[in-house]
Amino acid sequence: MGAITKGFAGADCSKTCPGGIRRLWVANQEDVVSITFGVNGEVDAYVMDTGTNFYEIKLKVNTKQLTEDVQVSDDGCTQSVTQTFEGIGSCWNQDVRDLLLEMGKQSCCGIIVIHEENSGETVTWGFLEDLYARLGSGTQTVTGANLTDPNQFTLQIICTTTLDGLKTTFTPGAAGVPITPAP
Predict the structure, then answer these.
(1) Is residue 175's pLDDT more than 60?
(2) DSSP 168
(3) Lowest mean pLDDT, pick from 33-42, 87-96, 132-141
């Protein structure tokens, strides 16, 4: 059984709360050897298999967002959270196509996601057994019809789970994440 253990005091007026996501990293689920959790259940560190890491995906500024949709059954006894990340990248090309195909194939085995919000929060999700993140059907590429049309791709990553993403304690931001920067 669940229990309400605290309320919400409202916004902290001494802090700004900008929307959007600053950076995004993904990793193959099987490349994560172990996850270290803190005393409050937050992720402290990922231990990666030799030669593997999280890969940064750079997308257009002010196009990245995460939506969490909480579903509760009619009797109130079962809950799920669907996390949907969407962002837009510039200039569809073979590198983008390769990334999207790799992510599509990896969806069967699981993708683990870390994102850093513009507020400074770093969140990880998609790491629970059998509840990994996957490439969403909203992923698409559009070359445009005219020279002035946007040539871009939309990346969608979805995870349906029983828990929301856990706050990480990587400090500052994602400095503790074993990452490979985007080329």
Answers:
(1) no
(2) B
(3) 33-42
Distance CA 26, CA 49 (A): 14
Q: Is 111 exposed, middle or buried (0-12, 13-18, 19+ CB in 10 A)?
A: buried
Structure-token pair, residue 19? 């929307």
H helix runs in the chain, sequence order: 94-106
Structure token pair of residue 78: 């079962």
3-class DSSP state for residue 45? strand
Q: Which residue has the tokens 């309400």?
A: 4
d(CA 31, CA 58): 21
Q: How far apart are CA 140 and CA 97, in angstroms?
A: 10
- Cα separation of 88 and 72, whole Å? 30
Q: What is the DSSP letter of 175?
A: T
